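Hi support team,

I'm filing this because I wasn't sure whether my run with zinc ion finished correctly. The job status page said complete, but I'd like someone to confirm that the output block is well-formed before I use it downstream. Pasting the exact inputs I used:
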Amino acid sequence: MLEGFDRASYGKISKNAKCTRCKERAYVHLPSHHANFCEVCFLYFFKRLVRKALVFFRVNPATPILVAVSGGKDSLALWDVLNELGYKTEGIHIDLGIKGFSEASREASERFALSRNLTLRVYSLKEIFGFDLPEIKKLTKRAVCSTCGALKRQFLNRLALQNGFNTIATGHNLDDEASRLLGNILRHKHQYLEKTYPFLPAVEGIMPSRIKPLYRLEAEEIRIYCQIRKIEFFQEKCPFSKGATNHMFLEALTYLERKMPGTKRDFLFGYLKSKSLPLVDRASLKACVKCGAFSYDEICSVCKLKEAISKPSSKETQYEN
Ligand code: AMP
Ligand code: ZN
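And here is everything the job wrote out:
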């Protein structure tokens, strides 16, 4: 039974509705799939879409996966379902040092790992970078969300390789990917559109492959999964992300989705179909002259940020959205 599930917000289901797959009583209605499911069949549906993504990424269950865990619903559902599918996983969490928010995120990640007897590696941004996020926010004029995103991406890549992993998975879902696509199209950000793909292959010894196994699942479907699997996630949005433009693009898509179920999926999948796998050109990567990490420039983005923090008057570069 999906106690507390706000069905009114996600397609009403009548008392007599039957599961599309097994004809037992249904508990959820998925408007964009024109389907009703009982709990058992919902889990089957959910796992099938994750497996489909992993087959597309050519990741088989023998491949160890490092799961980037924030403590939110997406990354905990991702970690849970990868284990259910028989993948060998460990989790990694970066504590950003945001008062209240980061403690709760870390606790939710640790509680989940403990409950499933899984290994979680925890790093603090302050230790690995020298500054936590509130300090970075204070010391630079850069947009804090994109700076945080770039730092997490860089450190997750580096820490994955250091810990012997060649594949890193994040909890990005269909809503995240579709709203980012909409934002980048509306603003003609062609350089970021190139990288809009749920899978980025590895560059041997330099960069692990990055996968988003939940890219076929909507946020609401992930919430239902957490409810059925009794996953206690941390709900709050990051206090630094208030007013982030991505939320507005998602609101616009949610409006369209309500009027025309399936819009988000058609928008994202139609776009991905027209694209080929983005490849990182190994020849264009150099070792950063400061820290030795791979970079497209002489100095990597982490070292550039550190420089900007130490010399706040220096010219600042913007990060990818
Ligand atoms: P966000 O950028 O908050 O939308 O998160 C997107 C994905 O990045 C999450 O689903 C996680 O997989 C990963 N992630 C976000 N924050 C952290 C964190 N503090 N530590 C590790 N992974 C994270
Ligand atoms: Zn069923």
